């Protein structure tokens, strides 16, 4: 059973470009979470999605950031008009359900904005 | 608001038990305590979790105090590969998000 997969592993963008980060959850998992980790800091929750629904986006910046988890295909975290402050590691996690269950994390995508 | 408090760093001799403390004095009755670790810049790795009772698995043991306001993660025989940042986590919000805090940087010394 393959783990959580994220791609690309490394992404370089210039200021003003768009970044699209993909996450394929573990097989059988219908819950996806996105976290951001700035250098020398812990992970910060961004958004929680189930298939075709955003359940909790309380950690998402109000502008330029969006997330989706379509019925078919991976979850996408989209950052429009990137700025240097968006440079970070973005981790995706998945779980089969929420209550009392652990989240399994992917290897992360490291975004660098030039 | 920080839900957990951990020492920023600890050292442990190889082969000895590593005991990592965590305070979670505001934990609610239905909130689980989770432990994860992050080696270098890899994705966090699940270690163990519990609600009220002590738990043990092949990686570690979790001791939760009776009042649930603190817990200790025990790595029984630390190896060099256990060098990592260890996060004690309590679910926040409606149970969807993990609050990672800054964790404890454990260094296992040969």
Task: Please give a structural write-up.
The complex is a heterodimer of chains A (114) and B (110). Chain A is mainly beta. In chain A, strands 2, 4, 5, 6, 9, 10 and 11 form a seven-stranded mixed beta sheet that branches. Chain A has a four-stranded antiparallel beta sheet with strand order 1-3-8-7, with no helix packed on it. In chain A, a hairpin with a 6-residue loop joins strand 7 and strand 8. Chain A is globular. The mean pLDDT of chain A is 92. By secondary structure, chain B is mainly β. Chain B contains no helices and ten strands. In chain B, strand 3 and strand 4 form a beta hairpin. The model of chain B has no long low-confidence stretch (mean pLDDT 90). The chains are: A mainly beta (114), B mainly beta (110). Chains A and B meet through strand 5, strand 9 and strand 10 of A and strand 4 and strand 9 of B.
Mean pLDDT of chain A: 92
Q: What is the terminal-to-terminal distance of chain B?
A: 37 Å
Helix content of chain B: under 10%
Helix content of chain A: under 10%
Largest sheet descriptor of chain A: 7 strands, mixed
Q: Extract low-pLDDT stretches of chain B.
A: none
- The radius of gyration over CA of chain B amounts to 13 Å
What is the oligomer described by this structure?
A: heterodimer
